[in-house]
Amino acid sequence: MKRFILFFFFGLILHSCQTNYTTRNMEYVNIKQFNIDSTNIRAIHAISKDHLYFAGSNGYIGYTLNEGKSWHIKQLNYQDSIIPHFRSVSLNNSNLFALSIGNPALLYKISKNSEKLVYIEHHKDLFYDSMKFFSDGKHGIAVGDPIENCPSIILTSDGGNTWQKIPCSQLPKFEKGEAFFAASNTNIKIIDNTVWIASGGKKARILKSEDTGKTWTVYDTPIVQGNGSQGIYSIDFYDKKMEL
């Protein structure tokens, strides 16, 4: 554990001291405002300066291909009576995936001409926070707050067409009050076949898998923790050894 903490801070210091960083002089900042009615945008996925996807409350998803000059927006609902509220959106193989919070959890695969419900789960305590895909285009992962003292983690190995939940017997145990934060998927980081997930609340820990999510190791961190608003919201890596 001490070794992990030392690597954590050594990586942070080394990354901040890179000598090849070139400063940029900002002459002005142009802030664009986008008004999209009837939804609170809770997840974004930027592909380039022109191309951005979003998902939000009341079943709304959308995207722009021209820096927000025009938007393609649609509203999804389940069985005409359940309106999903999305916290996660991710792109894989030209298909958009949107995952809702609450009960039932609904995961949609959206292509240019259709929307398909590819995963549904029922439990009164469900709350899925984040979702990402691996670079191979086949594997993906979505994570949610704990049920029965373990995190909710679902995996796909066929590009998102089908998803399976990992049983609690194969996952680290969570303490009461430990959970994840929905922060536009930034509490998940993927490099090659390795995935890291950050927790918060009662505990601030890092979950790590080196086999696309099949097996897991958990590490404590010195990040401030102890109540619902503390812990780790977002993580990123310079490479596999240097974490921010």
From TrEMBL:
InterPro entries noted in UniProt: WD40/YVTN_repeat-like_dom_sf (IPR015943)
Domain of life of the native organism: Bacteria
SUPFAM superfamilies: Oligoxyloglucan reducing end-specific cellobiohydrolase
PANTHER family: PHOTOSYSTEM II STABILITY/ASSEMBLY FACTOR HCF136, CHLOROPLASTIC, PHOTOSYSTEM II STABILITY_ASSEMBLY FACTOR HCF136, CHLOROPLASTIC
Protein name as it appears in the record: Oxidoreductase
Organism: Tenacibaculum maritimum NCIMB 2154
